[in-house]
Structures are given as structure tokens and as C-alpha cells.
Amino acid sequence: FYAGTSGGEVYKIVQWAGGGSRVADVWVAAGDEPVRALALSRRAHALYLATDNRLRQLPLRACTHRYDSCVRCVLDPYCGWDKEVGACRPYTPGLLHDATNSTPSICEASAPLKTVRAGYGQSVHLAAFGKTPEALKDQNVVWYHHSREKGRYKINYNWERVLQTSERGLVLLSVTDSDRGRYECYFGPTLIVSYNLDIDIHRCTQPSKSQEYKQVYSDWCHEFEKYKSAMKAWESRQMQCSKSNNASSQQNSMTNEIVASLR
User: Fold this and answer.
1) What is the extent of the structural domain holding 30?
2) What is the mean pLDDT of the chain?
3) What region holds the Ig-like domain (predicted)?
4) pLDDT tens-digit series, residues 227-236
5) Number of domains present in the structure of the chain
6) What would the mean pLDDT of 13-28 be, rounded to a whole number?
7) Cα distance between residue 152 and residue 59, in whole Å
8) Smallest Cα–Cα separation from 67: which of 131, 1, 125?
9) Staple 194 to which of 65, 83, 184, 263, CB 3.0 to 4.6 Å?
10) Distance between CA 205 and CA 188 in Å, rounded?
């Protein structure tokens, strides 16, 4: 069923036989306007939402464009994960589906495995989600590291070397050879993503051949160009923000003058 809030959100809530229930998804559907009424149309496969100023139609089977991972897709009663193409689709028999969250390992084979390479001493960001879904923000996310020295162990965060981002990702500061290996991110008992981290310890050694010098020079030139491009983009955004703020200030000033004259 669905529940609207005074903040313009709509909660999709799944309830099953035996009394279990949970939040499957949260839609920011009406801006900041309170949701006044909800109506479900099974014929149109849509949810209708009303506020004081608008009426909106929301599709019930918002799968492909709503969920980008198996772990989110299978929890929606209208959706299923197509493991052959790695996409979320409206549910049909044969797709992975676990609306009651009773099969924790259902998505393990579909969890992406990514390779990350970093130089000795660099900082590395390993993302859990592109953006943590509202429905999952209260859930526990745990990272594990498969190390040659320690084996598999749970990662504990600290301010000196290992940080957790607001989106539940992992940041490793000043990586060394001991940080190489496989990293796994679990949402509850479910694996959602894993990384193979490779540390290039040779990037900090002095080149010994002319070709190695040329390669290092080329790499640094490429990095410098990326920084220049990023700096130009940042400066452009700063100028746009400055112009926007100035225009807003002028408009507010004009509004105040008009109000003053009306008084």
C-alpha cells in the first residue's frame, strides 16, 4: 500500500501474510506540498496523487528507470531483476524476485565486480550506491576486505585511514600494498558490490629508461589537463552563481522599493 506525507513524499509499503512489512521505496512526488489524497487505479497501473495545487499520476511498475541494482529491484513487488542483461523490469516469471526479503543470497551472482587501480599513497573511493535510496538509509551497510595477510575481515572506520561517506561508500587514505585485495559491500546479508583493488607500487619508483620517463611525463600531462578542465568548469559555475545571486539581490531590492511605494 501507499502513504503520503506532509512533506510531499509517497512511501511504497510492502506487507505480506504473517504480519511482516517494510518500506520498499520512497518517492519525492509533490515537492514540498502536503499530499492530500491518494487513489490507486489497477486498470491504469497507476497511483494518483493530489495536493492543494496539483494532480499527478505515478506508474506502479516504475522498474527500469527506478532501480539500477538487483538488491533494490527484487524488493519491489512489481519488479524483477533480469540477470541476463543486468536490468530491472516489470515482473514476469523467470526474473529474480524477493519482495519479502526472505532469500538474502538471491542477488549475489548479479552483484557487480569492479577493478580499481591506484598508485601508492593515493586515496581511493569505493562506492556502495550512486546515491543511497531513501528506503535504505536506515539499513546497515558493512564492508569486508580480503587481505593476503589477514584473510577476510570486517572493516572498522577511523579518521586516520578508513572513512565512510554519507552514501555508505568507503574511502581509503594513503593506500599501501597491504590495502590491495578484494572489498565487498553488504546491505544486511546481501552482497551489493565488490571491488578488486590493485596498488601500483612502481609509480613512486624512479624511472630508469628514457621510455619510462616519457610515459611518466605523458601521464602527468594528461592529469594536469584534467585538472585544468575541472578548474575551468568550476570557475564557470562560480561566475554563473555570482550572476544569479546579483540578479536575485537586484530583484529583491526592486520588490522592496515597490512595496515601500505602495505603503
Assistant:
1) 2-104
2) 80
3) 104-185
4) 777 788 888 8
5) 3
6) 77
7) 43
8) 131
9) 184
10) 42
Last residue of a domain, one of 159, 175, 204: 204
Q: Give yes or no for residue 56 having a pLDDT over 80.
A: yes
H or E element that contains 251: helix 210-262
Look at the pTM and tell me if it is higher than 0.85: no
The secondary structure of residue 252, as a DSSP letter, is H
* Separation of alpha carbons 238 and 244, rounded Å: 10
> Which of 204, 222, 239 is a domain's end point?
204
Cα separation, 165 vs 235, whole angstroms: 26
Distance CA 79, CA 1 (A): 15
3-state secondary structure of 91: coil
Question: Which residues 6+ apart lie within 8 Å of 188 measured at CB?
Answer: 104, 139, 140
As beta bridge partners, residue 13 has 23
Across 42-140, where does the E strand assignment appear?
46-50, 55-59, 79-82, 87-90, 113-119, 124-126
pLDDT in tens, 132-164: 666 666 678 899 999 888 899 999 998 889 998
